[in-house]
Amino acid sequence: MTSAAHNDSISGDCRKSSNNASATTPLVASSSNALTTAREARSEPVPALRPPDQRSAPETGRPGPSPTAGAGPADASDHGQVDWRRLLRRFVEYLLSECGLAQNTIEAYQRDLREFIDLLDDRDVCIPSRITPHLVREYLIRLSQRRLALSSIARHLVSVKMFLRYLFIVDLLTEDVASLLETPKKWSTLPRTLRPQQVDAILSAPQPGEPLYARDRAILELLYATGMRVSELAGLRLADVNLNVGYVRCFGKGGRERVVPIGSYAIDAVRQYIRGLRKVLTESVIGMDAVFVSRTGRPLDRTNIWRLVGRYAAAAGLPTPIGPHTLRHCFATHMMEGGADLRIVQELLGHADVSSTQIYTHVDTSRLKSIHQRHHPRQ
Predict the structure, then answer these.
(1) Which of 74, 112, 206, 321 would be 216's cystine partner, CB 3.0–4.6 Å?
(2) Annotated catalytic residue, options 161, 253, 278, 329
(3) Is 334 a catalytic residue?
(4) Would you call 134 a catalytic residue per the annotation?
(5) Does this model's pTM top 0.70?
(6) Which residues have CB under 8 Å from 186's CB, separation 6+?
(7) Which of 90, 217, 229, 278 is catalytic?
(8) Superfamily of domain covering 54-180
(9) Residue 328: active-site member
(10) Where is pLDDT greater, at 119 or 100?
């Protein structure tokens, strides 16, 4: 997850979607028209931490840390030494109760900070005031020596800066060390997309004779029809799918809710799966409401969905590793090529900031060429 992805996960207001069918009509029309055109043509700044709520101590009237803050001078010994792993648990509790970050984001912070704490242990740093920008740079050099991508190193740095800012908020640091650290600038890279014919090859890869054909076909069709993130697909519940109206309800980063229309290909595939194979897979599991389940009737996790997409991409003869996010990029690019408005694509993808969506205007090479031919004086 890049630092930009962190920003996307906590910025912006939650868009509460209405169940009223008329409210989804403009999105249905735009999405269906753009994707139909495409198919027919082929036959980081650091997030700001909110200070913990304060309550008054009854004896003195002085403000003390809120129970949700979970840390403060009491977490340090008489010599100022702290238990880093205990502080990490308190930090995670704070993120859950105060910041409303997505679970995947919080898990990424935990993984990154465990590595940072290992460095603190190696250097025998047990007092917060001994954490300096030089020590953080040493941590980044260690990551670089492991040949991590610049985007991964930037994400680790964001995790560390969030943690240090938290220590400053709860008075374990007297100086905001995070403000002294600069996040490295990253090159903007265009997302990898596939031609419509290549997407069709992936969607046609599941064969009718295979045991899980109906489920796998429904997963591939729904990923391309909606541009959902893999975590959103894994979290789909039966109540989130309305095949009669033709939409699914997604819960994205930070729990933001949106309604995404789906076309006839995906509707047919999902309906066939729910009415047939899914009943067989879940007959021994009572009360299962996850849409996509494994052979044992348990919810299908995002790792298995990644493997599924990669397997069918390889079966379609596509050499490079391809995952669910590739289909998300294809959805957005093909929508833009089909004439969809940028703001509509932003809404469908669940981007809090339109700048995250604007990159797809650069991927649409046919549109760029058309504009160049129309406006450049020498053709």
Answers:
(1) 206
(2) 253
(3) no
(4) no
(5) no
(6) 2, 3, 150, 151, 154
(7) 229
(8) Tyrosine recombinase, N-terminal domain (1.10.150.130)
(9) yes
(10) 119
